[in-house]
Design a protein that fits this description.
This protein is an alpha/beta fold and about 350 residues long. It has 2 domains: about 240 residues, Type I PLP-dependent aspartate aminotransferase-like (Major domain) (Aspartate Aminotransferase, domain 2, 3-Layer(aba) Sandwich); about 120 residues, Alpha-Beta Complex (Aspartate Aminotransferase, domain 1). It contains 11 helices and 13 strands. Strand 2, helix 4 and strand 3 form a beta-alpha-beta unit. Helix 8 packs parallel to helix 11. The radius of gyration is 20 Å and the shape is globular. The mean pLDDT is about 95. The structure holds pyridoxal-5'-phosphate (PLP). The site of pyridoxal-5'-phosphate (PLP) has 15 residues, from helix 3 and helix 4.
């Protein structure tokens, strides 16, 4: 059993993906070729944002967003400790200090109730993560940001394709970022990412920062990075986009099947109807026996993430706050195989293996 089903996906989409790649090889515009603008137009329309700026990775999307907002040394950005390291890493790379607020027990997402007490004179922005594909509580977070004059950057690296109150993830706040890392819900075959905003000035800044702060050729009006997404990777995403909504629907069917198997017998994390289901994650009382039983049965499982960011050696110096909910979840979460490739029988086999391990 595969964890994400990328091989099956390629077999299904092979003709379109191969043709898209061949077109790029034929025209030879490997950097900023026509597929880049085409993908940006399609993704902006998909999200409902005025602008989409493709970039070289999800991490770079976060960094470029912070730079476009003017976040710099001395500033603070409030974020979640229960995420992939890139979320806080981008804040540090921008020169600012990550300030951690604990997460909700039920979703693992940044808890709006804990944000306010961490806001200070140096706070510039809030960076929630839509963990495992489920959007954070963006209405509450946007409300807090509005009252304090802060920007909100949604780290939607795991949630492209999710919705929240009828709006797409990526278009839920000042800026939304996503990643096309191969195993994300919408992946390319290397590194890639995108930024969404409906603010014209921010979009222009992001486009300049993406190419070394260049406003005209060889005129560098601001500090930038080398952050473009390859034309070839844009062609891969373009080939996958037409079938993407069907894949999200298939992920939701797989999640619903897991839910039926686990109903009230195993705790699960998150799981709103409109999640993109990047991961299906359980919270068993003890993780090790469950993971061992899955491994013995030839079923892959992954821990996202075994150590919260505020407890990582390189990050202790920024904020020594306690985040007990994130610490508890890091000890207990376990993500099961998830993707459109899974049959109902696959789900039943994974679930019965989990349940048997818990009963043992
Ligand atoms: C994957 C991920 C990133 C980084 O994306 P890359 O494209 O790998 O740089 C950032 N934040 C979260 C929450 C992620 O899951």
């Amino acid at each position: 059993m595969e964890f994400t089903g990328l091989k099956q996906q390629y077999q299904l989409l092979r003709n379109d993906i191969d043709a898209g790649i061949r077109r790029v090889l034929d025209h030879g515009q490997y950097i900023m070729g026509p597929e880049v603008a085409e993908l940006e137009a399609q993704l902006a329309a998909y999200c409902g944002a005025r602008h989409c700026v493709t970039v070289s990775s999800g991490t770079e999307a976060l960094l470029i967003s912070l730079m476009a907002l003017g976040v710099q040394a001395g500033d603070e950005v409030i974020t979640t400790p229960f995420s992939f390291i890139a979320t806080a890493e981008a804040i540090v790379l921008a020169g600012a200090r990550p300030v951690f607020a604990d997460v909700e027990r039920a979703t693992g997402n940044l808890d709006p109730a804990r944000i306010a007490r961490r806001i200070g004179a140096r706070t510039r922005a809030i960076m929630p993560v839509s963990l495992y594909g489920q959007p954070a509580d963006m209405d509450a977070i946007n409300g807090i940001a509005r009252r304090h004059g802060l920007a909100v950057i949604e780290d939607g690296a795991q949630s492209f394709g999710a919705s929240y109150h009828g709006q797409r993830s990526g278009n839920l706040s000042t800026i939304g970022c996503t990643s096309f890392f191969p195993s994300k819900p919408l992946g390319c075959y290397g590194d890639g990412g995108a930024i969404f905003t409906s603010d014209d000035d921010l979009a222009r800044a992001m486009r300049e920062i993406r190419v070394h702060g260049q406003s005209e050729r060889y005129c560098h009006t601001r500090l930038g990075v080398g952050g473009r997404m390859d034309t070839l990777q844009c062609a891969v995403v373009l080939a996958k986009l037409p079938g993407f909504d069907d894949e999200i629907a298939a992920r939701r069917r797989v999640a619903a099947a897991y839910d039926r198997c686990f109903a009230s017998r195993v705790e699960t994390l998150g799981g709103a109807e409109a999640s993109a289901w990047a991961q299906y994650t359980i919270v068993p009382p003890r993780r090790e026996p469950v993971q061992a039983a899955l491994t013995a049965a030839g079923i892959p499982s992954v821990v996202h993430y075994p150590q919260p960011i505020h407890r990582q050696p390189a990050y202790l110096r920024y904020d020594d706050v306690a985040c007990p909910v994130a610490e508890l979840l890091a000890q207990r979460v376990l993500s099961l195989p998830m993707g459109p490739h899974l049959s109902q029988a696959d789900v039943a086999r994974v679930a019965s293996t989990v349940l048997a391990a818990l009963d043992a």
